[in-house]
TrEMBL record:
Gene3D superfamilies: Divalent-metal-dependent TIM barrel enzymes (3.20.20.150). One of its GO terms (molecular function) is isomerase activity. Residues 26-293 form the Xylose isomerase-like TIM barrel domain. SUPFAM superfamilies: Xylose isomerase-like. This is Xylose isomerase. The lineage of its organism: Bacteria, Bacillati, Bacillota, Bacilli, Bacillales. It comes from the Bacteria. It comes from Cytobacillus oceanisediminis. Keywords: Isomerase.
Length: 295
């Protein structure tokens, strides 16, 4: 018997369905989602590719079928904001994605910023801090957020980093499975630690099969590049170290995770993100049902 009762809206990462956008939106509506998260870095949803008429058309269609956008995904890849030379371009692109988000009715863009180093006096830490400070100030000027996805580093290190910024315009997109699969962190404890920063969440499950260096999973500026690193990275990608699984089949304790979210009075979206090779529609529909079973 489930002891946690949820009232949060349910979102779906529409790109996980591997359908054309408008078809995917209708499927999300039909499976009972309240909102969607949309990837907005490349392709038709990139801010430089979607003109004003297309933005209005999309917003109108979402309204007509009763869907909201929980967040846009603005993960620019590479090493996040670790490379000071590349950051001006990435910062500008991130701002344009946030502008698009605001036009479409959401105030949240999720992203990865790269693994935060332990050494706060390192050039990489400084580059990330400078970039995130600029993004945080811009976001708060719009009453919005860039939300860092959890997983690349322990939640305590992420909180220490966020505490150095002047505003919470850079906050947290909490993903419990990344923590379980990569760092071995406890999601419920992480929720309580990061409670002042959580503005969006993912509902995802997985299992850690054996320890992996986060740098082999997410990359790190100046790390690896040799034969041994390439071999390890290939093994990590193969599923030898961790595996994403359907909700309830992995090691995320959802009773504890949802209870922690209730404890901190989190009112935002629970958004399903799944990497599914076969039958994504049925798999994600089952995930929606899994969350609804806690209502």
């Amino acid at each position: 018997m489930k002891t946690v009762k949820l009232s949060n809206k349910i979102g779906v990462m529409v790109d996980s369905l591997r359908l054309p956008l408008y078809e995917g939106l209708k499927v999300c509506r039909d499976m009972g989602a309240d909102g969607v998260q949309i990837y907005a870095v490349e392709g038709e949803m990139a801010p430089e590719n979607i003109d004003q008429a297309s933005r209005k058309k999309l917003k109108s269609y979402l309204d007509s079928i009763g869907l909201e956008i929980s967040a846009l995904c603005g993960d620019l890849g590479g090493h996040g904001f670790q490379d000071a030379e590349q950051n001006p371009i990435k910062i500008e692109k991130s701002k344009r994605i946030l502008d698009l988000a605001a036009e479409l009715g959401t105030n949240t863009v999720t992203t990865h910023i790269g693994i935060i180093p332990e050494e706060q006096d390192s050039p990489i830490y400084e580059a990330m801090q400078t970039a995130c400070e600029e993004l945080a100030v811009y976001a708060r000027s719009m009453n919005a957020y860039f939300a860092i996805e959890t997983g690349p580093e322990p939640s305590a290190r992420l909180k220490d980093f966020l505490d150095t910024l002047s505003t919470n315009g850079v906050s947290v997109n909490f993903d419990p499975a990344n923590m379980v699969m990569v760092t071995g962190d406890d999601p419920a404890a992480g929720v309580r630690l990061l409670k002042d920063y959580i503005v969006h969440t993912h509902v995802k499950d997985g299992k850690r099969l054996k320890p992996a260096d986060p740098r082999d999973v997410y990359g790190f500026l100046g790390y690896g590049g040799g034969t041994d690193h390439a071999k390890i990275a290939e093994m990590v990608a193969s599923g030898e170290y961790f595996r994403e699984l359907p909700l309830g089949k992995g090691n995320v304790d959802f009773e504890a995770y949802f209870n922690a979210l209730n404890e901190i009075n989190y009112q935002g979206y629970l958004t399903i993100e799944r990497e599914v090779d076969q039958n994504p529609i049925s798999d994600i529909a089952e995930a929606v049902g899994f969350i609804k079973s806690f209502r």
